[in-house]
């Protein structure tokens, strides 16, 4: 049921989506820098990397060799930094090779996004930053739909001058 499966986000105070109309504009960089800045200010921060075709945040935070583990309430995110102050979940942790391509059709991608939203044990966070895929696709609709019942603070739209 919804109430049973959605308790993993109850300790998250604010959710920020990071979006763009096209790829290569720096969404993942913005997510990473924002998470580091919020952490520097003393906030508890998580990053949910749902950019399934280009999960670059594990590499940016130098944790691409880590694995996620299961606990009673779902997946345990990877904790980043000397103080383990940033929680990170990414499909990059689920691939055999970090550079493996994810070639999935919509339903499978959407199911994984929903699973990331409901089945990651985030604990208490001040901010959860969601790195979305480029463009406007089913994955965005799935992400917003899955997050609809939570405290969605807003969205950051990353663009370039052209």
From TrEMBL:
One of the record's GO molecular function terms: ATP-dependent FeS chaperone activity
GO cellular component: cytosol
Entry-linked SUPFAM superfamilies: P-loop containing nucleoside triphosphate hydrolases
Keywords linked to the UniProt accession: 4Fe-4S, ATP-binding, Iron, Iron-sulfur, Metal-binding, Nucleotide-binding
Pfam families cross-referenced by the UniProt entry: ParA (PF10609)
GO biological process, one term: iron-sulfur cluster assembly
Name under which the protein is recorded: NUBP2 factor
Lineage: Eukaryota, Metazoa, Chordata, Craniata, Vertebrata
